[in-house]
Write a structure and sequence with these properties.
By secondary structure, this protein is of the alpha/beta class. Helices cover 28% and strands 21% of the residues. The strands form three sheets. Strands 1, 3, 4, 10, 11, 14 and 15 form a seven-stranded mixed beta sheet that branches. The protein has a seven-stranded mixed beta sheet with strand order 5-6-7-8-12-13-16, sandwiched between helices. Strands 2-9 form a two-stranded antiparallel ribbon.
């Protein structure tokens, strides 16, 4: 069945959704909370099969190993540490545990990789006279290339904002969209922005939904389609700049733009985050968020661990010392051709 992209929220890795799932009753004890957390993930997490294939994840083995660290005399901080460590085995930035005094997060998907971004360079290219359209900052560079910096899809972008921005940039020969370090946000804004670069209804991916408690219990693949905007659209070449900090809804934006004939993805592999997150709670009131619905690219491949660029470029120290951003300059060269 063909379906348009759902208007859903894909939160950045440190925010939680309000969707809840009813769970069996467990005692409010270290063992009870441990068992509740393990079972919530066991029955509802969506990437077990994929991650077993990717790096050998065995959720039953994880339970056996971490249950040895549970003790009836442990305090809440000690319990939180054990549960956080167990969740990290999933290697998923959408999996978080929240207590009143701490927040468990898995940021290894971007830590340990080249940053390939620098705030001082962003400011240099934007200057001081840039324009602001809701969540986006933009200006025309001296070679008549448009530069748009969109830092987070948490920041709203209305149709009027996009119309005005594209009108102001309409005489530029090409457009750079810089979403490096964009950790995601509202998928509606990502879809709305991407729709400005398509002239026909385009198949951009797939989504599945959980149909049971088994690790492999999913619906058949449902197609995701992107409808072209009925407002002003961009008909010239565009480069999308990426790094490992591109995650969740921003990762989806890159997935869409991969299907745009005039778009080139430039920079580093994205961070991923291809699971639609939901949340539940433990007997002690702690909240757990996890990936529940997997999404795929147009070829049916998972983008949970990121999307490769069309042109791989890393920020170079020599360019930085000259005040130049290697990735932006690479995009300018592509657009100049």
């Amino acid at each position: 069945m063909k379906k348009s992209i759902l208007y859903i929220i894909m939160c950045i890795p440190f925010l939680c959704l309000s969707s809840c799932i009813d769970e069996d009753e467990y005692d409010n004890s270290p063992q009870g909370n441990f068992e509740a957390l393990w079972k919530i993930l066991d029955e509802h997490y969506c990437f077990f099969d994929y991650k077993r294939q990717a790096y050998g994840l065995d959720w039953n083995e994880v339970r056996a190993r971490y249950s040895k660290r549970i003790d009836t005399t442990m305090n809440s901080d000690q319990l939180f540490e054990v549960l956080s460590d167990m969740l990290a085995e999933l290697r998923d930035g959408h999996v978080n545990l929240t207590s009143t005094g701490d927040f468990a997060r898995y940021w290894t998907w971007k830590e340990g990789y080249p940053a390939n971004s620098n705030d001082s360079l962003y400011r240099r290219y934007l200057g001081t006279d840039y324009k602001i359209a809701a969540g986006a900052s933009y200006r025309v560079l001296d070679d008549n290339i448009a530069y748009v910096r969109y830092e987070s899809f948490q920041d709203g972008m209305g149709e009027g904002n996009l119309d005005k921005m594209l009108i102001n940039l309409m005489f530029c020969q090409g457009l750079i969209i810089d979403i490096r370090d964009n950790g995601g946000g509202n998928l509606t804004y990502a879809e709305r922005f991407a729709a400005r670069f398509f002239n026909e209804r385009t198949h951009v991916g797939y989504i599945q939904h959980k149909t049971g408690t088994g690790h492999s219990d999913f619906s058949s693949l449902e197609e995701q389609w992107l409808e072209p905007s009925s407002n002003i659209r961009w008909h010239k070449p565009v480069c999308v700049l990426t790094n490992r900090g591109v995650y969740s809804a921003a990762n989806e934006f890159v997935k869409y733009m991969k299907q745009c004939p005039l778009a080139t993805i430039v920079g580093d592999v994205t961070g991923g985050g291809a699971g639609m997150p939901f949340s539940s709670s433990l007997p002690n009131g702690w909240s757990v968020r996890f990936s529940a619905c997997p999404m795929y690219d147009a070829d049916g491949e998972s983008t949970e661990f990121g999307i490769a660029p069309d042109v791989k470029v890393d920020l170079q120290q020599a360019d930085f010392l000259r005040g130049e951003d290697t990735i932006i300059e690479a995009a300018r060269s592509i657009l100049a051709k």
